[in-house]
Amino acid sequence: MPEHSPAPTPHRAIYGFAFYFLFTVLFFIYVAWAYLPVELGLHSHLPDKYFAAFVPVLIIVGAAFAFIIYPAINLALTPNIDSIASVVDLKLTLPKGSKFTSWSQLQHPRAEDVDPQPNAAAPVQCNLCRITHRPKTRPPIAPLRFLDLQEVNATFFDN
After folding, report:
1. Closest to 105 in 3D by CA, of 121, 135, 74, 82
2. Beta-sheet pairing, 124-125 with 132-133
3. Which of 3, 30, 74, 159 has the greatest number of CB atoms lying within 10 Å of its CB?
4. Does residue 111 carry a pLDDT above 60?
5. Residue 19 is inside which H or E element, if any?
6. Cβ-count burial 54-81 (b if 16+ within 10 Å, e if not)
7. What are the residues facing 125 on neighbouring strands?
8. What pTM did the predictor assign?
9. 132 strand-pairing partners
10. pLDDT, tens digit, for every residue of 62-102?
11. What does the alpha-carbon distance between residue 92 and residue 111 come to, in Å, rounded to a whole number?
């Protein structure tokens, strides 16, 4: 079995040289077409000189949009990692006028954010089902913790 090497094989080296030579010749033809005057009589067989500037600019602008502008727009529209909006749609789940905008506010609520009478909540217009109802109060979700595998197996598989 031949040893692997980063050097190209002979046929790949020949193809590489041929493509290098071909594109060098095409580049010189392109530059000559772009800069030679029209009075030489070749203008009837060649495209308009407008394309000598238009095609490279089109390629550069397309690459800029594909690799710089579109990713930048996506990053600008992405909510913070700490924001509730990165997980749920706030307009559908939170009632209008809600004070919570991030997970840290839900995990560590301030005194002014906590409702003093959770059972006496006023009826609200639900954005999800579009009807007015009194929201149900639920106990908070327990914080995440490491579950022992033996405890999980005992809970689910022991009789």
Report:
1. 82
2. antiparallel
3. 30
4. no
5. helix 10-35
6. eeeeeeeeeeeeeeeeeeeeeeeeeeee
7. 132
8. 0.41
9. 125
10. 999 999 999 999 999 888 887 777 777 656 665 666 666 66
11. 25
